[in-house]
Amino acid sequence: MSVWMRSLLLTALLMLPLSAFAEEGNGLIGSWTLVWKMGDGRPVNRFREVIGPDATFPLASRIVRADGGGRFLALLDADGDADELIELDPREEVLVADRGDAWLTWTRDPVHRDRATFRYNVRSASEPVWEATGQGEPMLLADDGSLFLLASQEISYDLFSRATMDDAGKTQLVGSAGDVRVELPIRPAFAAFTGNGDEIVLLRDRELLVLRRDGTVAWDAALPMDHLVARDGRASLQAAAGRIVVAGTGEEPGARPAWSMYPVRTGWILMFDDDGHETWRARQPDDESLWFQITPALSEDGRMLATVHSDGGEVVVRAWDAATGDRRWTRREARRVGVQSLSWSPDGGHLLMANGDDRTQIKVWDASGQVVWEGMLPFTSRVPRLLPGGVLVAERWIVRLTWDEPGT
């Protein structure tokens, strides 16, 4: 693409009609300042001004829409500006490596929905490195783009023509050259890289399976959880800093009340190290309601674990010592609409809970369970994450949260 064409496209995409919006405001506790925003009204980039000249911009790419409705993959430079724009077909989906150096696009076959055309791209090439047709949908892409996980689900039908879907299917580990390193006759419910990126963790009903990058099996473990399914962006699996945690519910063997046709279910949290040793497990206490849709969140340093689960009209947020399984604190919050996410700051010093809808409801606790920030942000997000210094990063915006630490 020529320089003047790129300039024209950037102008059409980013210089959208000016819309009135606040660039700072107050929450119920604390205040916020808009740092960066793209693809929704007037673009804003005050990252160096607000965060500091030596700060590392935390995003490598974003999917944005032009004023006319077209979709583009924006590759960002070190200052957060759009360095390159790649137009996407209306039916094209994309998965981008965290570093922004490679991305995988796929277009589903309009007739055979289980098949798609895949294209592997790198930032240094103007055309796809390779193109292939196959089954499945990408679940995971390495942060350097060197391999990805492709999974397809097998759908069968019962005597009444009702579709039944379980973890039957196919999973392929594919290298950046399009080489299939291993093919497994399963479809995991969740997948993640270990904290060091050396292994791939697959979670399905009753089993945790860990693969090396060459496709060989490192280890596996039996689990007491079943009926694992992704709901509203929540995951039952997380890995960081030499730890792997899984959470969910499962049937109690042989436990079936006389008055019920259904077996008893209970909730579990299991912690493993990267070598496959189970370091601790927690069973749901008898005096608590079922840990329905329980989601774990590990801090990047591996020190802290948090969980959230639904309990009627509330959600229960609990902090744990990730090394020992000791409970630190528990908080009960009203359930809210929108996608709910839970994550730690990298050092485990602050826990973020967000509910994303047209606006984003934010609550931040410190490691002792004290609320340091609470409020509504006038931006849409599904899964924002908290960086050091109160920097909150979402899909198309970044804000800085300002709070006073308890006791100051």
Q: TL;DR?
A:
The protein is mainly β. Helices cover 4% and strands 51% of the residues.
Looking at the chains present, what oligomeric state does this protein adopt? single chain
Q: Radius of gyration over alpha carbons?
A: 22 Å
Structural class: mainly beta
How many β strands by DSSP?
A: 33
Q: How would you sum up the global shape? A: globular
Sheet having the most strands: 6 strands, antiparallel
Q: Average pLDDT across residues?
A: 85
List the total number of helices.
2
Question: Would you write up a description of this structure?
Answer:
The structure is a single chain. 4% of the residues lie in helices and 51% in strands. The protein is mostly beta strands. The chain has a domain at 88-187. Strands 1, 2, 3, 31, 32 and 33 form a six-stranded antiparallel sheet that branches. The radius of gyration is 22 Å and the shape is globular. Mean pLDDT is 85; it is low at 1-20.
